[in-house]
Amino acid sequence: MISVTSDDFRRAMAHFATGVAVVTTTGAGGEQGATISALSSVSLDPLTLLICLNRRSATCRSIEKSRRFGISILASHQEAIARRYAMPAQDKIVGEDEVRHPDGTLFIQEALVHIGTEVIETLRGGTHEIFLARPVHVTMNPDPDVGPLLYFRGAFDLTSS
């Protein structure tokens, strides 16, 4: 039997091209955000999606308390925003790239899609929390010429623009 190391697994999964999103929330520590690629639809009935976040992150802890988060699926020109929110620091929200929904949820301006959610269940997956959430509002960028920001083999793929 061949054993797979965490490095082997990380390199293998890097071959799965994925979209890039920023998840945002507000908690006791203020406004938090993190770049994610672990985002998936789960069910259309009931409407359910999932995200995965490292349990040590401030964003994860804030979502656990608030039970709400926003998802901004990033456009191809938003690599700098993805990099900023990928940094391991609190209070990455600075106001220049964000917009607030009337219900208070924070999103990244000019993203392809904004999805406001409410957490319905939390599961533990090793070092990460898996948040199952119900979408409560969705807004889509009307520009048909804007493509997604993709991540492949450890780098942002700008060929989709």
Describe this structure in words.
Keywords: Oxidoreductase. Residues 13-158 form the Flavin reductase like domain. The chain has 161 residues and is an alpha+beta fold. The protein has one domain (18-96, 107-151): Pnp Oxidase, Chain A (Roll). 16% of the residues lie in helices and 46% in strands. Strand 9 and strand 10 (128-140) form a beta hairpin.
Give structural attributes.
161 residues, alpha+beta, Pnp Oxidase, Chain A, seven-stranded antiparallel beta sheet, 46% strand, globular, oxidoreductase, NADH-dep_flavin_reductase, FMN binding
Order of helices and strands: HEEEEEHEHEEEEEE
Structural class: alpha+beta
Largest sheet: 7 strands, antiparallel
Number of helices: 3
How many E-type strands? 12
How many domains make up the 3D coordinates? 1
Helix content: 10-25%
CATH superfamily: Electron Transport, Fmn-binding Protein, Chain A
What number is the mean pLDDT? Answer: 90
CATH architecture: Roll
CATH topology: Pnp Oxidase, Chain A
Q: What strand line-up does the widest sheet have?
A: 3-2-6-9-10-5-4
Kindly estimate the percentage of residues that lie in beta strands according to DSSP.
Answer: over 45%
- Could you say which overall geometry the principal axes of the C-alpha atoms support? globular
Roughly how many Å apart are the termini?
43 Å
Flag low-confidence runs: none
How large is the radius of gyration? 16 Å
CATH class, anyone?
Mainly Beta
Organism: Nguyenibacter vanlangensis
Domain Flavin reductase like: 13-158
InterPro entries: Flavin_Rdtase-like_dom, NADH-dep_flavin_reductase, Split_barrel_FMN-bd
Keywords: Oxidoreductase
